[in-house]
Amino acid sequence: MKSNQNPADSLSGWPKSLEGDLVWSGTGSSPAEPHILQLQPVDIAEIEAALKAFKELGFHGDRVSCDTFRLSDDLRSRLREASRDVHNKQGHCILRGLEPNKYSAEDNAMIFLGIASYIGDVRGVQDSNGSMLSHITVVRQWKAVPDRLRHGVHTEQGMPFHNDMGTSVLALHYRQCATEGGFTHLSSAWTVYNELSVKYPDVLETLATPDWPIQITKTKSRYYLAPLIEYHNGKLVISLDPGRLGRQTPNKEYTATTKYPPFLGNGNNNDNNQNKDKCDGASEVPILTDKQNAALDTLNKVANQHRLSVPARPGDMLFVNNWALLHARDPYMDGGANDRRHLVRVWLHDQELSWDPPDSMKTPWAAAFGHRFPEAVEQVGGGPHRRNKVNHKYPIMPAVDYHVPKYTAGSAAFTIDSSDDEDDSHLQ
After folding, report:
1. Count of structural domains within the chain
2. What's 351's domain CATH number?
3. Angstrom distance (rounded) from CA 111 to CA 126
4. Which residues pair with 93 in a beta bridge?
5. Which residue from 42, 19, 21, 43 is spatially nearest to 32, judged by alpha carbons?
6. How sure is the predictor about 221, in pLDDT bands with cuts at 50, 70 and 90?
7. Does the global pTM surpass 0.90?
8. Residue 1 lies in a domain
9. Is residue 2 part of a domain?
C-alpha cells in the first residue's frame, strides 16, 4: 500500500495563509487569553436541580441529554453560545465555577455529561469495551507497572502537541490538579499552518501528503495511509497523534487477563508468546521516514511557540475543537492519596455545529461515533470500526488494577482497535 500522490499536489488549491478567529497565538505582543465562561451561584443551583431531577428518573448515564438534564433557556443559551465559540471562534472554552469536592464521583460524572450535552449532543465510544468516559490519572497502585507498559495519559510524563484522533470535540473535567506541573497547553493548527507556509513549506507538504501509516487491526490490511492535515470545506482540519503513527509493536507482557501487580517481567509466559505470534502482522506496517519524523518535530516546535496555557482549577470543564487545535501536557508530580491529578475525558460531536471530517480522517472518527452515524462506518469499510453493538459504559472512577494493554502507542488511552481476544476494561 502506498500513496500515488505527488507531495507537490497535496497543497494544490490551498490558501497561502488562513484568516479568522481560529488564527491566534498565546504569545507575542497581543497574546490570546483563555476563554472562560464563569458560572454564577444561580447557575450552579440550577445545575444541581437538573442533576436531582435526572437522578429521580432512574436513568443510566447513556440517557443524559439536553432533554433529560434540563436547564433554563438562559443557561442553555449561554452554553450553546459556548459551543459556537468552540466550533467556529477561538476553538476552546473553559466552564468555571463548580466545586467537585461538593459532589460524589457519580454526581460529578452526571453533571459533566449533562453540561457537555449542550456543547455536543453525541458522545463517542473511546474503546472497544464501550467506555464513554476515560480517566486521565495515575492511581497509586499503578506505580507497580513501568511507565512503558502504561498509556501516556496514565503516566506522569509530559505529552507533545497532538489531538485525539477520533473526536470532533475533546471535553475534559478537572476533578483534581497536580501538586506540581501537569499544565495543559493549546495551540491553533491554523496559526501553525500560517507559520509553516512561510518558513517551512516543505514540512507543510509532508504533513499534507497522504502517506502517513496509521495502524489498525481486525482487517486484512494492518494499516491505512492518510494525511495529517487537510483543507476541507473551507477549513484547515488536523488529525495527528505522533504516538499513533507508523508501526506499533505489541507489549510482550500483554495477555488478555493480565493485571498488575504482580509484574510478569520478562514476557516468557506461554500466553504472552502465543499472543506475540498473533501480532506479528504489525511488521507489515511501515515505519516513519526521517522526513516525516523531522516534520513532526518542526510542527511540535512551532505549536509550542504559539501555545496558550490553560489556567485550570479543580472543577473546570475544558472543551476543545479537536479538528482545529492541538493540545499538550507538561510532566507533573502528584502529592498524597487525595492530591492526585485526575481528569475525566469525554468525546463529543454536535450535529448542528461540528465539522464534517474529510474521508481521509474518518476511520478513527467512525470508530467513535459509528453507533450514531452508521453510514460513516460503511464509508470506511466497516470491520474494526463497528462499535455500535457494544454496551456503553460510564465508569465513574478509574480501576484499581491496571491491565497491561496490548499497545501503549499514542497519547490517548484508546490507540489501536483492539484484537478479538483483548480485554479493554483497563481503559475505564
Report:
1. 1
2. 3.60.130.10
3. 19
4. 319
5. 21
6. low
7. no
8. no
9. no
